[in-house]
Specification:
elongated, 2 helices, alpha+beta
């Protein structure tokens, strides 16, 4: 009489061990991928703000208005960090950049006096950006600043 093919206990244990090894490799990689995505989003936000500032300067120059861009306003009631150029009312960005809530990381905080703080994901580090002379910059000596601006 021919028996039907079946897995032995050793084969099942071997498969479970292999799945466990694969999971132990994959799970940390997925966690790092989320942090990388948050940093890429912050880099895109910094680039968009800088482009928006340059565009606003060019629009003002074309109109013969040489006033400096002195501030970006927010909409604190909606939890939005970068709303518009407060002296012209034109939007800084097309979509809202939501403010951090509580101890969340990977998000922006309006720290006042045209200072904006990005809370780095995966660490307790913060990167401080300031709007000075119409430019949106951070301290390039800081490694996290370099990560977000290059």
């Amino acid at each position: 009489m021919k028996s039907s093919p079946a897995f032995t206990m050793i084969e099942l244990v071997f498969v479970i061990v292999v799945i466990g090894i694969l999971a132990s490799i994959a799970i940390p990689r997925f966690a790092a991928t989320r942090d990388d995505a948050e940093i890429a989003k912050a880099k895109a936000t910094v680039g968009a703000i800088r482009t928006s500032l340059a565009t606003e300067r060019q629009l003002r120059t074309l109109r013969g208005d040489f006033t400096a861009i002195t501030s970006l306003s927010n909409n604190a009631s909606a939890g939005v960090v970068f709303q518009d150029f407060s002296d012209s009312g034109r939007s800084v960005l097309e979509g809202p950049v939501l403010a951090c809530e509580g101890g969340r990381r990977g998000c922006w905080v309006d720290s006042g006096n045209q200072t904006y703080t990005y809370r780095m994901p995966g660490s307790n580090n913060n990167v401080v950006f300031t709007l000075q002379n119409g430019q949106f910059n951070c301290d390039l000596a800081d490694a996290d600043c370099q990560l977000l601006t290059r």
